Amino acid sequence: MRIFYGVQGTGNGHITRARVMAKALFAAGIDVTFQFTGRPAGKYFDMEIFNGYQLRTGLTFNTNKGQVSYLKTACDVKPITFIKDVKSLDLAGYDLVISDFEPVTAWAAKTQKKTVLGIGHQYAFRHKIPREGSDPLAEQVMKYFAPADRSVGLHWHHFGQPILPPIIDTPEIPQNVLKNKIVVYLPFENQQEVIKLLSPFKNFEFHLYSPGDISSKFAHIQCNPLSYEGFQKDMYNCSGILSNAGFELASEALQLGKKILAKPLHAQMEQISNAAALQQLGYGHVMHDMDSSIIEHWLHDDHAVRITYPNTAKVLVQWIQNGLPEMDTDFIENIWNAVEVLQINL
After folding, report:
1. Burial of 220 (0-12, 13-18, 19+ CB in 10 A)
2. Is the Cβ–Cβ distance between 184 and 208 less than 8 Å?
């Protein structure tokens, strides 16, 4: 079986999910070609697991000071390049096309009249899940950015809908957690402003990961370049995650039992909805602006939620090998019945 798998590369969450799927697909002996779009070639890192991959320009969203800039996004779109990318992608030799909200793959499949399977968090928004910050433009983006004929939506809870748990690694639960160690990943915020905001909290050790070359003059704030291995190592024994409201990082934090403080991007419906879901479920804290008083309260909160999710990637690979049968109620309920939610004290 040959699969072409397109992944949106703008944020690291899609790539993290793709790493887990790649491991499961390759373990099943499936021949997979991965394509990534949405960021410059030199900005990808730790991509060895994909066994060689294709890169195209694709489409992405531009942000400024923690907010999506639709004007800059529109100005930076390269329609001729996008059309060329779509036309140059030949999917004739593949048995299945998958898109993790990746537009070039999705539109190439549509143009070539090949069925495309959408797998990812964004496809959960086809169902009745917590939704805030929506507007007509956001709804159209969700619908047409990376259209799929069939889709598998992912979320932290089923909300009574035919969606599945997150696709994440299922590591052993950490035995030694450093109570004052906090991992910070706020790539869409001004990093110097983040450092300034965290500087008064000297009783905590902050490990800040940033896409740029950032330095800190404070001993308790350590700045790190983006690194999959380094980030996972720091995340494993920290007590909390301070981040934007991306889906995949929060999923990993819940799996490991880390407390969460999420700051959603302004004007980004998906992140605002993720924040609403975290609050509704009682899985994390939210701040809509960078607020030192909220951060201080969260830092001294010892409560967290640990969720044991099943190996969704393995389930999906088996489902793909079985020919993508309809997911009936029993199939979905059996998967969610394996989920365990535990309230813990750090």
Report:
1. middle
2. yes
CA distance 300 to 201: 11
Distance from C-alpha of 229 to C-alpha of 241, rounded to nearest angstrom:
16
User: Topology of 2-168+311-339 in CATH?
Assistant: Rossmann fold (3.40.50)
Both tokens of 27, joined, read 């373990």
Q: Which residue has the tokens 């047409």?
A: 144
pLDDT value, residue 68: 56
What residue segments make up the domains of the chain, in order of their start? 2-168+311-339, 181-308
- Cβ atoms of 97 and 117 closer than 8 Å: yes
User: Cα–chain-centroid distance for residue 228?
Assistant: 14
Element (H, E) at 308: strand 303-308
Closest CA to 280 of 297, 302, 305: 305
- φ, ψ of residue 325 to 5 degrees: the values are -65, 160
Angstrom distance (rounded) from CA 342 to CA 183 = 22
List, for residues 40-82, the tens digit of each pLDDT value: 899 899 899 998 899 999 886 665 555 555 445 555 667 888 9
Residue 306 CA to its chain's centroid (Å): 18
Q: Among 300, 80, 69, 271, which Cα is nearest to 182's?
A: 300
3-state class (DSSP) for residue 333: helix
- Specify the pTM: 0.92
Domain pair 2-168+311-339 / 181-308, same fold? yes
Nearest-CA neighbor of 243 among 273, 265, 218?
Answer: 265
Hey, what CATH class is 181-308 in? Answer: alpha beta
Gap between the Cα atoms of 166 and 153, Å rounded: 9
Distance CA 7, CA 24 (A): 16
Distance, in Å, from the CA atom of 41 to the CA atom of 282, rounded to the nearest integer, reads 38
* Burial class for 112, CB neighbours closer than 10 Å (0-12, 13-18, 19+): middle
DSSP code at position 201: -
Beta bridge partners of 159: none
